[in-house]
Amino acid sequence: MTADRSTVKTGIVGCGNIGQHHAERLSQLGVPIVGGMDVSEAARRRFAERYDAESYADHHELYDAVDAVVITTPNAFHEEYAVDAFERNRHVLLEKTLAHTLESAERIAAAAAKSHGVSMVGFNNRFRNGVRLIADRIARGELGEVMHVEANYVRRRGVPGRGSWFTSKNVAGGGSLIDIGVHVIDLSMYLLEYPTVETVSGVTRSEFGGREEYAYLEMWGEDAGPDGFDVDDSASAFIRCDGNRTISLEVAWATNRPPTYEIVVRGTEAAAVFDLHDHEVTIHSARSTGTDHFVDTTLSPGENDGHVDEQRAFFDAIESGNEIDVGASVEDALTVQRIVDGIYRSSERGEAVELRSSGRAEPVGLDSGERG
Questions:
Q1: Would you tell me which of 33, 64, 109, 328 could form a disulfide with 332, CB atoms 3.0–4.6 Å apart?
Q2: What gap in Å lies between CA 138 and CA 149, rounded to an integer?
Q3: How does DSSP classify residue 167?
Q4: Tens of pLDDT along 42-64?
Q5: How far apart are CA 180 and CA 73, in angstroms?
C-alpha cells in the first residue's frame, strides 16, 4: 500500500541551494511544501515564488504551520532549529553533519531522544542502489565476516567557494572532513553495522585553500580568495573498532592526485568494490574448486536518486509509524560526529585517541590519573 504523503505539511528551514534541492524532490514525492524559513529576505522571496509557499523570517511561526521540517542551514545553526523542532515533537529530517561541534551534536541528540517525532539525518548515500545491494550481500553472508573498509572521497580540485560558510571553522566546524568525509565515515560504519569505536588516529591538513595562487577548478561557488579559509582541505585517518574491525579513510577537497570515490568492503569470503559516482559493484573472491582461480563479478543495480529515496523512507515512516530501516538515526550521526571530533583531536595532539562513552576523545595509553 502506497503511503499518502500529501497529508504531511512540511517546511524547509534554510532556503538556499540545499533547501531548494530538497524542495524539488519533495515536490516529486507529492509532499506539500507549506513554507520556507530563512534569515535572508531575498532567499525567502525566491523560495516563496518558486514553490508557491509562505515564507517566514521566524522559525517558530513556520513550526506552528507544519508537521515536519527539513533543516538545511549551515552546521552552526542546526542546534537551534533542530532542538526547537524536537521539543515541539515535529518530524525532523536534518541535513548532515549533525552539528559543527561535538557538544552541539550531543545537545541535539538529547533533544531527539525525548521527542515523539520521526527523525533522520541526511546521509543519503545509504540509499544508493549499489550500497543497498552490498548491504544485502553482507546480510546474506556472501562476504563472510566484514573486517575492513577502505573509504575514499578525494577530489583533485574541489574546495567549496572560498569565503563561503563551508570554509569557516566557526560556522562549519571544519573543512573537508566534516563536509564530505562524514559521508564515507557513515557508509563505512553502516556496512560494518556500527561497531563500537575504540581508537582513532588521524591527520588533517590545510595545503591548498589558503594559497593565493590556488587553481580555481571545480569549485562549488564564487572564489573570495584565501582570507578566512581556516579549515582542513584533506584528512587521512585510521579507525579501529571492536572485534578488530577497521576503517582507513582518505578525504580531500583538493590534492595532487587523480580523484577517487572508491569504497572497498573487505570480508573473509569476498570483497565488494564500488564508486560513489558510478553505478556498478564488483564482487571479488577466489575459489579452489576445479582449480584455484579468482572470481570477479560485476553487478549493475542501476542509478537512483539517493535524496528522493531518503525522503521517501522518511515520510513513509511518518505515515506508517514504523522505524526507518536504512536511514541514519540521530544516534548514528552522533557516533560519526564523535569520530570526526576524535580525528581532529588526534591531529592536534599528534597521537591516537580513544573515544569514551561520553564522546570525548582521550589520548591512548594514559590512565585516569595521568589524564588529570
A1: 328
A2: 13
A3: G
A4: 999 999 999 999 999 999 999 99
A5: 16
Q: Give me the number of domains the chain comprises.
A: 2
Residues forming a β-bridge with 123 = none
pLDDT tens per residue across span 290-340: 999 999 999 999 999 999 999 999 999 999 888 888 999 999 999 999 999
Same domain assignment for residues 247 and 186 = yes
Q: What is the CATH number of the domain that holds 23?
A: 3.40.50.720
Q: Which residues contact 372 (CB under 8 A, 6 or more apart)?
A: none
Contact 247, 241 (CB under 8 A): yes
Cell reading at 244: 578488530
Dmax of the chain from CA atoms? 71
Give the relative orientation of helices 182-191 and 330-349 as an angle to the nearest 10 degrees: 120
Grid coordinates belonging to 207? 595545503
Residue listed under C-alpha cell 506552528: 64
pLDDT digits (tens, 9 = 90+) for 143-191: 999 999 999 999 999 999 999 999 999 999 999 999 999 999 999 999 9
- Record the cell numbers describing residue 108, joined without a space: 541535539
The amino acid present at 350, given as its one-letter code, is G
The pTM assigned to this predicted structure is 0.94
Domain boundary among 63, 92, 125: 125
Residue-wise burial string across 237-275, b where 16 or more C-beta atoms lie within 10 A, e elsewhere: bebbbeeebbbebbbbbbbeeebbbbbbbbbeebbbbbe
- CB-CB neighbours of 108 under 10 Å: 27
User: DSSP strand E in 96-233: where?
Assistant: 119-122, 146-154, 197-205
Domain boundary among 107, 125, 143: 125
- Cell readout for 66 is 507544519
> In this structure, are 195 and 344 located in the same domain?
yes
Strand partners, 157: 254
CA distances from 197 to 141, 304, 359 (A): 23, 31, 10
Residue located via cell numbers 582541505 = 233
Cell reading at 136: 544485502
